[in-house]
Amino acid sequence: MVAAIRRAGTNTWDRFAASDPGLLRLMAGLRTVGAIVLTLLVLALLGTGTPLMVAGAMVSMVSTFAIKEKEVRGQAVTLALGLPVALAAMSLGALLHALVVTGDVFFVLLIFGAVYSRRFGDRGTALGLIGFQVYFISLFVHASVATLPVLYLTLAVAFGCSALVRFAVVPQTPQRTLGRLREAFRARLAQLLATQQELLDVEPDELDKVLDDLRRHTARLHEAALMIQGLLEEGTRDEAAAGLVQRRVAEAEIAAERLGMLLLNARSAGRADTLTMHLPHAPVPATGTRIRTEDDAIRTLRRDLNALLLLIARTVPGERGTALAHVRNRLLGYRDEDNLPQASPAVQDVFRGLGEAARSVLGLRLALDGPQDESDDSPATTRSREEFDAEDLAIVVAEEAEEPADDRTGLQRPTTRAAFQVAVGSTLAMIGGEFLSSQRWYWAVLTCWVVFLNTASTGEIMVKGYRRLVGTVLGVIAGVALAGLVGDHTWLAFALVLLCIFGMFFTAPLSYALMSFFVTAMLGLLYTLLNTYSLDVLVLRIEETALGAACGIIGAVLVLPVHTDRRTDELLGTVLVRLRDVVSAAVEQLSGGPAVDLLGKARDLDEALDELRASIQPLTHPITPLRVRRRTARYLVALLETSAYHARSLAATAELVPFSRTIAADPRLERAGRRIAYNIDLIVARVLEESTEGEVQSGASIAAMLETAGSGALQSGTVTFRVLRHLQRLDEGVVGIARPLDVPVAGPGGKAA
């Protein structure tokens, strides 16, 4: 019973850790709530009134969430600089309280400066945000010159409590965060493999659900891998170690993805169409027949999938044992063709995938935890270790790459453009807000400000404004209910405020509408604490929010606009260029060329694709009236995601060639790589409007090209055989991308299709 409870608890925690990789959202919520609670306790002991406690709680919240720097020293410096900035903002808010016009002009200038300061990195962004928010708080609590001394004390207490919680109670260091992300990656890897196991025996009528789970867990694993990538340099001892961990994480992710594809191929007698399986509403692969092979092979496959799960579950330091080594050795043995069981080619492919997955798990463990006990190694395991040693020696510690200089100046610089846009929008919001309410006009300005945060095009601003309005309306309904529930119970109201704040930070990365809901519900409680609550106030909140969102959109449209189409075209061009770089470099290495950092290039492709995925949200959002464009955007991104998967797999296979004793390069692959690169270059030129000449080449399959390029059939186990499917799918995917972009495609006869 105790063991069952422990297993249930472990499984529950693993699921939670997988849903919040690295526990980043949980830690952010706990850190903010902890700082607020400590601030309230100190202010209560000092005997301050409720308005000052509200101000202290808000300042504590701002001083906690505004700082995003990764290094502890940088966080401390920014927090120390933030206090004088906050004192200055509060002082100016109190001094300009009675000077309406002067105060409004200063507020607009402050907003401009806060946005413009983003060009100075995380510290500039944090200080600008603190200055703006504290000035806003001074308006919220009606700060005056007479109340400045006690407000100064409140600010000092808030910043001190924020520092104490950040550096002592809930510390945030890159090393701790990276450690939690490692556990999240392990949990997500185990979840993905457990879902892949279901493909063997799932009934046809339940296959849709399993495929949906497979897509979701694959996406979550990819998300965790990208988050690890962002913290490697700060969370590891040096650049070489960071590069090594990055390589091993990427290998594990790719090996897990490939294993799922191979299982899906084996599951379907008709072989799964891996080009279209990721598309929205894609048809389910044919499942008329079960895996046609010997029962012994299937039983062995089930056993070894469980064994791989065991290896993943034991990827923590201190795990030893002959049984574990035996499992590892058996799985790594499948990398040799002689050790494959008698089965159909599709099932043998799965066993090869098991061997590569086991190798990636071994590599990940070596990179994260250092040397392991080698006393029970088999020849296959020894060879895998030697391959890793050769790869490690080949990693050249290059000078830290500098960010390419941004040659845009003046009004073309994104921060400058955004500063002017938000200044104009805020001016309109201020004027319109005064007509709605001379006391609450700043809510419109706040909405105008926040819709510009983390947005880069007019379409993104429109979608963010819409989501904020929806969240605000729902939050007003919740605020009415909570205000009635609280009544005169001050500490109950504070407790619910803390709950709303935690919900706000925990849901912020997931849904902006949910975050806005918690913010508005919290405001209803704050007004209750300040004895200024009424239904009219919350209705006014909706009106001011709608006005602020509209003014933000007007500012984005009229002042130096960045159209969504132009931005998405630029990002699409970037993704295609990086796809070409990965494919060309991988094929060159597969053809016998020099070794390069292919997995680093693949990670750059993933980051560009993530940025494109975020930028097309205005085109794919349900409120968009352009249904055809929405379908086209989804189709293109789905094709790019599938192409990126095959490019990563090419890169992972190419990485093995220089160090493997069993895989040799094949010069015939160079021709296939040239065709794919040529087609991508044509599409990029058309997307960026650089050229309209040329046609995308299609026709003969990659396999046919390779057969005509050299003698000899494609043998199972050769590098050509292993990458053939990836090259073919990339070739088909690039042609598929060309068609909706109206790029001419030449058919087999050389004529445009």
Automatic annotation (TrEMBL):
Coiled coil segments of this chain: none
Subcellular location: Cell membrane
Integral membrane bound transporter domain boundaries: 429-554
TM ranges: 33-59, 79-112, 124-144, 150-170, 418-435, 441-457, 469-485, 491-508, 515-533, 545-562
InterPro entries, per the entry: Memb_transporter_dom, MFS_trans_sf
Keyword terms of this UniProt record: Cell membrane, Membrane, Transmembrane, Transmembrane helix
Membrane protein topology class: Multi-pass membrane protein
Source taxon at top rank: Bacteria
Chief site of localization: membrane
Family: Belongs to the YccS/YhfK family.
Protein name: Membrane protein
